[in-house]
Design brief:
With about 270 residues, the protein is mainly alpha-helical. The protein has helices spanning about 5-20, 25-35, 40-65, 70-95, 100-120, 125-130, 155-170, 175-185, 190-215, 225-245, 250-270, and strands spanning about 135-140, 145-155.
Length: about 270
Amino acid sequence: MLPLIGLFALGIGVGVFGTLIGAGGGFILVPILLLLFPNQNPSVLTAASLFVVMMNAGSGTIAYARMKRVDYKSALLFSLATIPGAVLGAVATSHVERRAFDLVFGALLILVCAFLLIFPERKVKRAAALHKSAHTKRTITDSAGTTHEYVFDLRLGLLISGFVGFISSFLGIGGGIVHVPALSHLLDFPVHIATATSHFILAITALVGTLTHLVQSRGAFEWNLALPIGFGALAGAQLGAILSNKVHGAGIIRALAGALGLVGIRILFMSAR
């Protein structure tokens, strides 16, 4: 076990990078916890990670809200769609053995990494082709005065969100590693709007997942592990949101891809030993 100051510092790092790329930081934290506690039950580690993701996402959402980058209408609808999956994912974790958990987690990270490296830039569809009854249009002007206009398929977004809810609670990663690429590449959200909106969704999904884990474990929880990391993430999230102003959208996506690939390879290597 790391000392409290080490856990707090870990939380800051998770908060900064997780908020910068809109992924909540769980995909960074879970592999580290897997390395630090090789014999621990996955449900214990995912519960602690989801608690940290919840605190990180809540803090990051406040920062992004000040920047006026959150698409609240879409975020609320997508959040509702994640809830059933979040409950099922939290329940399923307790029935999966550690080796299988590591294999699924590592493979998912590498697949998402490959997709983002192949398609680092979102391809903006022609406006004329998007103005259909099946699509929803949004116009958001952020605090810097930049106006973001985009059109997306709401039904596809709800379907994706249901899947994200399950993955987030099952793996304890918050779901941002799937939601940000899906919002930016499949639903055509501008990257900075995608990261901010993803954080709002993450806060709700992680809360549901954490509560479900608590009910499943009858209140047993690694507070000594989760609290110092969580408070570090609170502080780191504010810094990550500020840094997002200085990073180009494609840079955020490439940073996300690189981190996912390295972590995924490490997890698969561990599971093969």
